[in-house]
Amino acid sequence: MTINRQILLVSRPKGEATLDNFHLAAPELPELGEGQVLVRNFYLSLDPYMRGRMNDTKSYAPPQPLDTVMIGATVGEVIESRHPEWQPGDAVSAMFGWQEYGISDGSNLQRLRDSRVPMSVYLGAAGMPGVTAWYGLNRIICPKPGETVAVSAASGAVGSVVGQLAKRAGCRVVGIAGGEQKCDYVVQTLGFDACVDYKAGNVYEALRAAAPDGIDGYFENVGGEVLDAVMRNLNAHSRIALCGMISGYNGDPIPMKHPALLLTNRVRLEGFIVTEHMDVWPQALKELTDAVAAGELRYRETITQGIENAPAAFLGLLKGENFGKQIVRLV
Questions:
Q1: How many other C-beta atoms are found inside a 10 Å radius of the C-beta of residue 135?
Q2: Is the whole-model pTM more than 0.90?
Q3: I need a surface site. Which of 60, 103, 172, 193 has the fewest CB within 10 A?
Protein backbone atom coordinates (compact mmCIF):
# COMPACT_ATOMS: atom_id res chain seq x y z
CA MET A 1 0.00 0.00 0.00
CA THR A 2 1.06 3.60 -0.68
CA ILE A 3 1.41 6.03 2.21
CA ASN A 4 -0.24 9.43 1.73
CA ARG A 5 1.37 12.01 3.98
CA GLN A 6 -1.04 14.79 4.95
CA ILE A 7 -1.13 17.92 7.07
CA LEU A 8 -4.23 18.13 9.28
CA LEU A 9 -5.62 21.14 11.14
CA VAL A 10 -5.96 19.89 14.72
CA SER A 11 -6.62 23.07 16.71
CA ARG A 12 -7.80 26.67 16.25
CA PRO A 13 -5.21 29.46 16.55
CA LYS A 14 -5.45 31.86 19.45
CA GLY A 15 -3.87 34.94 17.96
CA GLU A 16 -0.99 33.95 15.70
CA ALA A 17 -1.10 30.50 14.14
CA THR A 18 1.61 28.11 15.35
CA LEU A 19 3.07 24.76 14.36
CA ASP A 20 0.99 23.17 17.14
CA ASN A 21 -2.16 23.85 15.11
CA PHE A 22 -1.04 21.26 12.55
CA HIS A 23 -0.33 17.53 12.55
CA LEU A 24 1.49 15.34 10.03
CA ALA A 25 -0.51 12.16 9.33
CA ALA A 26 0.46 9.22 7.13
CA PRO A 27 -2.54 7.03 6.26
CA GLU A 28 -2.49 4.36 3.59
CA LEU A 29 -4.24 5.06 0.31
CA PRO A 30 -7.33 2.95 -0.32
CA GLU A 31 -7.74 1.06 -3.56
CA LEU A 32 -9.43 2.99 -6.36
CA GLY A 33 -13.11 2.41 -6.94
CA GLU A 34 -14.83 2.34 -10.30
CA GLY A 35 -14.90 5.84 -11.85
CA GLN A 36 -12.12 7.18 -9.61
CA VAL A 37 -8.76 8.79 -10.41
CA LEU A 38 -5.55 8.80 -8.35
CA VAL A 39 -3.37 11.90 -8.66
CA ARG A 40 0.18 12.37 -7.40
CA ASN A 41 0.39 15.99 -6.30
CA PHE A 42 3.61 17.67 -7.43
CA TYR A 43 3.06 21.15 -5.96
CA LEU A 44 0.88 22.66 -3.23
CA SER A 45 -0.17 26.30 -3.13
CA LEU A 46 0.04 28.24 0.15
CA ASP A 47 -2.14 31.36 0.27
CA PRO A 48 -3.12 33.94 2.91
CA TYR A 49 -6.84 33.09 2.72
CA MET A 50 -6.06 29.79 4.46
CA ARG A 51 -5.44 31.64 7.71
CA GLY A 52 -9.03 32.87 7.79
CA ARG A 53 -10.34 29.36 7.22
CA MET A 54 -8.51 28.19 10.36
CA ASN A 55 -10.81 30.35 12.53
CA ASP A 56 -14.23 29.18 13.66
CA THR A 57 -15.89 32.48 12.81
CA LYS A 58 -18.46 33.70 10.31
CA SER A 59 -16.89 34.44 6.94
CA TYR A 60 -17.50 34.11 3.22
CA ALA A 61 -16.68 30.39 3.46
CA PRO A 62 -17.14 27.73 6.17
CA PRO A 63 -14.23 27.23 8.59
CA GLN A 64 -11.79 24.41 8.01
CA PRO A 65 -13.07 21.43 10.05
CA LEU A 66 -10.66 20.15 12.67
CA ASP A 67 -8.81 16.89 12.13
CA THR A 68 -9.13 17.16 8.35
CA VAL A 69 -6.63 17.86 5.58
CA MET A 70 -5.89 21.59 5.25
CA ILE A 71 -7.53 23.19 2.25
CA GLY A 72 -5.35 24.15 -0.70
CA ALA A 73 -4.87 24.06 -4.45
CA THR A 74 -2.56 21.47 -6.00
CA VAL A 75 -1.18 20.51 -9.39
CA GLY A 76 0.00 17.06 -10.27
CA GLU A 77 -0.29 14.04 -12.55
CA VAL A 78 -2.77 11.21 -12.88
CA ILE A 79 -0.96 7.97 -12.00
CA GLU A 80 -3.91 5.57 -11.98
CA SER A 81 -7.39 5.84 -13.44
CA ARG A 82 -10.61 3.88 -13.49
CA HIS A 83 -12.34 6.80 -15.20
CA PRO A 84 -12.85 6.88 -18.99
CA GLU A 85 -11.98 10.58 -19.36
CA TRP A 86 -8.68 10.52 -17.47
CA GLN A 87 -5.48 8.68 -18.32
CA PRO A 88 -2.17 8.18 -16.50
CA GLY A 89 0.13 11.04 -17.39
CA ASP A 90 -2.60 13.70 -17.56
CA ALA A 91 -1.46 16.92 -15.85
CA VAL A 92 -4.21 18.35 -13.64
CA SER A 93 -5.04 20.97 -11.05
CA ALA A 94 -7.45 20.40 -8.15
CA MET A 95 -8.21 21.36 -4.56
CA PHE A 96 -6.74 18.29 -2.92
CA GLY A 97 -5.25 20.25 -0.02
CA TRP A 98 -2.08 19.64 1.95
CA GLN A 99 -1.36 16.05 0.96
CA GLU A 100 0.82 14.09 -1.42
CA TYR A 101 -1.98 12.23 -3.24
CA GLY A 102 -5.59 12.90 -4.12
CA ILE A 103 -8.47 10.63 -5.14
CA SER A 104 -11.24 12.09 -7.30
CA ASP A 105 -14.30 11.10 -9.29
CA GLY A 106 -12.97 13.48 -11.94
CA SER A 107 -15.46 16.28 -11.31
CA ASN A 108 -12.97 18.54 -9.52
CA LEU A 109 -10.05 18.06 -11.94
CA GLN A 110 -8.91 20.66 -14.46
CA ARG A 111 -6.49 19.85 -17.27
CA LEU A 112 -3.28 21.84 -17.57
CA ARG A 113 -3.43 22.41 -21.30
CA ASP A 114 -0.45 24.67 -22.11
CA SER A 115 2.86 22.84 -21.79
CA ARG A 116 4.73 26.12 -22.38
CA VAL A 117 3.89 27.10 -18.81
CA PRO A 118 5.66 25.32 -15.91
CA MET A 119 3.26 23.26 -13.80
CA SER A 120 3.85 25.29 -10.63
CA VAL A 121 2.78 28.52 -12.34
CA TYR A 122 -0.79 27.20 -12.54
CA LEU A 123 -0.84 27.85 -8.78
CA GLY A 124 0.34 31.43 -9.24
CA ALA A 125 0.32 33.84 -12.16
CA ALA A 126 -1.64 31.41 -14.37
CA GLY A 127 -3.92 30.24 -11.56
CA MET A 128 -6.14 31.56 -8.80
CA PRO A 129 -3.81 34.42 -7.72
CA GLY A 130 -3.52 35.60 -11.33
CA VAL A 131 -7.29 35.51 -11.86
CA THR A 132 -7.73 37.37 -8.56
CA ALA A 133 -5.43 40.11 -9.84
CA TRP A 134 -7.16 40.17 -13.24
CA TYR A 135 -10.64 40.46 -11.78
CA GLY A 136 -9.90 43.11 -9.17
CA LEU A 137 -8.05 45.26 -11.68
CA ASN A 138 -10.31 44.89 -14.71
CA ARG A 139 -13.73 44.60 -13.09
CA ILE A 140 -13.40 46.91 -10.05
CA ILE A 141 -10.53 49.34 -10.59
CA CYS A 142 -11.20 49.53 -14.36
CA PRO A 143 -7.94 51.38 -15.11
CA LYS A 144 -7.70 54.06 -17.77
CA PRO A 145 -4.47 55.03 -19.58
CA GLY A 146 -2.63 57.74 -17.70
CA GLU A 147 -4.15 56.95 -14.31
CA THR A 148 -2.12 55.97 -11.25
CA VAL A 149 -2.71 52.53 -9.75
CA ALA A 150 -1.21 51.47 -6.43
CA VAL A 151 -1.01 47.92 -5.09
CA SER A 152 0.04 46.58 -1.70
CA ALA A 153 1.97 43.32 -1.24
CA ALA A 154 3.33 44.24 -4.65
CA SER A 155 5.99 41.53 -4.84
CA GLY A 156 3.53 38.76 -3.94
CA ALA A 157 1.65 36.33 -6.14
CA VAL A 158 -1.37 38.61 -6.61
CA GLY A 159 0.15 42.07 -6.35
CA SER A 160 2.91 41.37 -8.86
CA VAL A 161 0.33 40.44 -11.50
CA VAL A 162 -1.87 43.44 -10.72
CA GLY A 163 0.97 45.85 -11.32
CA GLN A 164 2.10 44.27 -14.57
CA LEU A 165 -1.43 44.20 -15.95
CA ALA A 166 -1.92 47.85 -14.94
CA LYS A 167 1.26 48.79 -16.80
CA ARG A 168 -0.07 46.98 -19.87
CA ALA A 169 -3.21 49.11 -19.53
CA GLY A 170 -1.13 52.29 -19.76
CA CYS A 171 -1.10 53.29 -16.09
CA ARG A 172 1.53 54.65 -13.76
CA VAL A 173 1.97 51.90 -11.17
CA VAL A 174 3.19 52.30 -7.60
CA GLY A 175 3.85 49.22 -5.50
CA ILE A 176 4.01 48.89 -1.73
CA ALA A 177 6.24 46.12 -0.37
CA GLY A 178 8.31 45.23 2.66
CA GLY A 179 12.04 45.71 2.31
CA GLU A 180 14.53 47.18 -0.15
CA GLN A 181 15.09 43.88 -1.97
CA LYS A 182 11.40 43.40 -2.72
CA CYS A 183 11.01 47.02 -3.83
CA ASP A 184 14.00 46.72 -6.16
CA TYR A 185 12.45 43.60 -7.71
CA VAL A 186 9.09 45.31 -8.16
CA VAL A 187 10.65 48.22 -10.06
CA GLN A 188 13.61 46.65 -11.86
CA THR A 189 12.13 43.27 -12.80
CA LEU A 190 8.36 43.74 -12.84
CA GLY A 191 8.51 47.21 -14.37
CA PHE A 192 6.55 49.22 -11.80
CA ASP A 193 7.21 52.97 -11.91
CA ALA A 194 7.93 53.18 -8.18
CA CYS A 195 7.74 51.14 -4.99
CA VAL A 196 7.27 52.28 -1.41
CA ASP A 197 8.98 50.29 1.36
CA TYR A 198 6.45 50.31 4.18
CA LYS A 199 9.18 49.24 6.61
CA ALA A 200 11.32 52.30 5.89
CA GLY A 201 9.27 55.08 7.43
CA ASN A 202 6.35 57.37 6.63
CA VAL A 203 4.25 55.50 4.06
CA TYR A 204 1.95 58.47 3.45
CA GLU A 205 4.81 60.81 2.54
CA ALA A 206 6.55 58.15 0.46
CA LEU A 207 3.33 57.50 -1.47
CA ARG A 208 2.81 61.21 -1.99
CA ALA A 209 6.27 61.43 -3.56
CA ALA A 210 5.80 58.30 -5.68
CA ALA A 211 2.32 59.35 -6.85
CA PRO A 212 2.44 63.14 -7.08
CA ASP A 213 -0.83 63.25 -9.04
CA GLY A 214 -2.64 61.11 -6.47
CA ILE A 215 -3.97 57.57 -6.70
CA ASP A 216 -6.89 56.65 -8.95
CA GLY A 217 -7.02 52.90 -8.33
CA TYR A 218 -5.83 50.81 -5.41
CA PHE A 219 -5.59 47.02 -5.07
CA GLU A 220 -5.66 46.21 -1.36
CA ASN A 221 -4.10 43.08 0.13
CA VAL A 222 -2.96 44.34 3.54
CA GLY A 223 -5.21 46.84 5.34
CA GLY A 224 -4.20 48.64 8.52
CA GLU A 225 -1.66 51.45 8.35
CA VAL A 226 -0.96 50.85 4.67
CA LEU A 227 -4.62 51.40 3.78
CA ASP A 228 -4.72 54.51 5.97
CA ALA A 229 -1.77 55.99 4.09
CA VAL A 230 -3.29 55.20 0.70
CA MET A 231 -6.64 56.70 1.70
CA ARG A 232 -4.96 60.07 2.28
CA ASN A 233 -3.51 59.98 -1.24
CA LEU A 234 -6.67 59.02 -3.13
CA ASN A 235 -8.15 61.16 -5.87
CA ALA A 236 -11.83 61.92 -6.30
CA HIS A 237 -13.78 59.03 -7.84
CA SER A 238 -10.98 56.56 -7.12
CA ARG A 239 -11.64 52.82 -6.92
CA ILE A 240 -10.42 50.26 -4.37
CA ALA A 241 -10.46 46.52 -5.03
CA LEU A 242 -10.46 44.96 -1.56
CA CYS A 243 -8.85 41.54 -1.91
CA GLY A 244 -7.24 40.85 1.47
CA MET A 245 -6.56 42.29 4.93
CA ILE A 246 -3.58 40.23 5.99
CA SER A 247 -2.65 42.68 8.75
CA GLY A 248 -5.72 41.50 10.66
CA TYR A 249 -5.63 37.76 9.99
CA ASN A 250 -4.51 37.00 13.55
CA GLY A 251 -7.73 38.44 14.91
CA ASP A 252 -6.48 41.90 15.85
CA PRO A 253 -8.90 44.75 15.05
CA ILE A 254 -7.82 46.94 12.14
CA PRO A 255 -9.89 50.13 12.35
CA MET A 256 -9.75 52.64 9.51
CA LYS A 257 -8.44 56.04 10.63
CA HIS A 258 -9.93 58.16 7.84
CA PRO A 259 -13.26 56.62 6.76
CA ALA A 260 -14.73 60.04 5.93
CA LEU A 261 -12.40 60.17 2.91
CA LEU A 262 -14.52 57.48 1.28
CA LEU A 263 -17.32 60.02 1.09
CA THR A 264 -15.19 63.09 0.49
CA ASN A 265 -13.54 61.50 -2.54
CA ARG A 266 -16.65 59.52 -3.63
CA VAL A 267 -14.57 56.35 -3.52
CA ARG A 268 -15.85 53.06 -4.89
CA LEU A 269 -14.66 50.31 -2.52
CA GLU A 270 -15.62 46.74 -3.33
CA GLY A 271 -14.55 43.55 -1.61
CA PHE A 272 -14.55 40.43 -3.72
CA ILE A 273 -13.95 36.69 -3.64
CA VAL A 274 -12.69 35.48 -7.00
CA THR A 275 -14.40 32.08 -6.79
CA GLU A 276 -17.74 33.91 -6.91
CA HIS A 277 -16.90 35.09 -10.43
CA MET A 278 -16.21 31.86 -12.27
CA ASP A 279 -17.64 33.34 -15.48
CA VAL A 280 -14.45 35.36 -16.04
CA TRP A 281 -12.00 32.51 -15.36
CA PRO A 282 -11.73 31.17 -18.93
CA GLN A 283 -10.94 34.61 -20.38
CA ALA A 284 -8.61 35.57 -17.54
CA LEU A 285 -6.71 32.28 -17.57
CA LYS A 286 -6.21 32.40 -21.33
CA GLU A 287 -4.83 35.93 -21.20
CA LEU A 288 -2.60 35.15 -18.23
CA THR A 289 -1.31 31.85 -19.62
CA ASP A 290 -0.55 33.41 -23.01
CA ALA A 291 1.29 36.28 -21.33
CA VAL A 292 3.38 33.95 -19.15
CA ALA A 293 4.21 31.70 -22.13
CA ALA A 294 5.27 34.73 -24.19
CA GLY A 295 7.53 36.01 -21.38
CA GLU A 296 5.39 39.13 -21.02
CA LEU A 297 4.19 38.36 -17.49
CA ARG A 298 6.97 37.79 -14.99
CA TYR A 299 6.69 35.86 -11.76
CA ARG A 300 8.80 34.66 -8.86
CA GLU A 301 8.38 31.63 -6.61
CA THR A 302 9.52 30.65 -3.14
CA ILE A 303 9.60 26.86 -3.14
CA THR A 304 9.72 24.80 0.06
CA GLN A 305 10.55 21.11 -0.24
CA GLY A 306 8.39 18.47 1.44
CA ILE A 307 4.86 18.28 2.86
CA GLU A 308 6.31 18.14 6.39
CA ASN A 309 7.61 21.69 5.94
CA ALA A 310 4.32 23.17 4.72
CA PRO A 311 3.20 24.51 8.13
CA ALA A 312 6.45 26.42 8.72
CA ALA A 313 6.35 27.80 5.18
CA PHE A 314 2.76 28.92 5.71
CA LEU A 315 3.58 30.72 8.95
CA GLY A 316 6.45 32.43 7.14
CA LEU A 317 4.07 33.53 4.40
CA LEU A 318 1.82 35.21 6.96
CA LYS A 319 4.86 37.19 8.18
CA GLY A 320 5.97 38.19 4.69
CA GLU A 321 9.05 35.97 4.67
CA ASN A 322 8.31 34.57 1.20
CA PHE A 323 9.30 36.31 -2.03
CA GLY A 324 6.66 35.95 -4.74
CA LYS A 325 4.37 32.93 -4.82
CA GLN A 326 4.81 30.48 -1.92
CA ILE A 327 4.73 26.87 -3.11
CA VAL A 328 5.54 23.49 -1.56
CA ARG A 329 7.19 20.90 -3.81
CA LEU A 330 5.81 17.47 -2.94
CA VAL A 331 7.99 15.25 -5.15
A1: 21
A2: yes
A3: 60
Neighbours of 60 (CB within 10 A): 12
**Cα separation, 230 vs 243, whole angstroms:** 15
Round to whole Å and give the CA distance between 36 and 103: 7
Q: Identify the three-state secondary structure at position 39.
A: strand
Q: For residue 193, what are the domain limits?
A: 128-275
pLDDT tens readout for residues 169-218 = 999 999 999 999 999 999 999 999 999 999 998 999 999 999 999 999 99
The separation between the first and the last C-alpha atoms of the chain, rounded to the nearest angstrom, is: 18
- Burial of 113-126, coded b for 16+ CB within 10 Å and e otherwise, reads ebeebebbbbbbbb
pLDDT tens column, 66-97 = 999 999 999 999 999 999 999 999 999 999 99
Residues 183 and 253 occupy one common structural domain: yes
- The answer to whether position 234 is within a domain reads yes
Q: Are residues 135 and 268 in the same domain?
A: yes
Number of domains within the chain: 2
Question: Does residue 216 sit in the same domain as residue 318?
Answer: no
In a domain, 219, yes or no: yes
| 305 and 265 both lie in a single domain | no
**C-beta separation of 154 from 163 below 8 A:** yes
Torsion of CA 245, 44, 124, 155, to 10 degrees: 50
Cβ-based burial of 67 (10 A; exposed 0-12, middle 13-18, buried ≥19): exposed
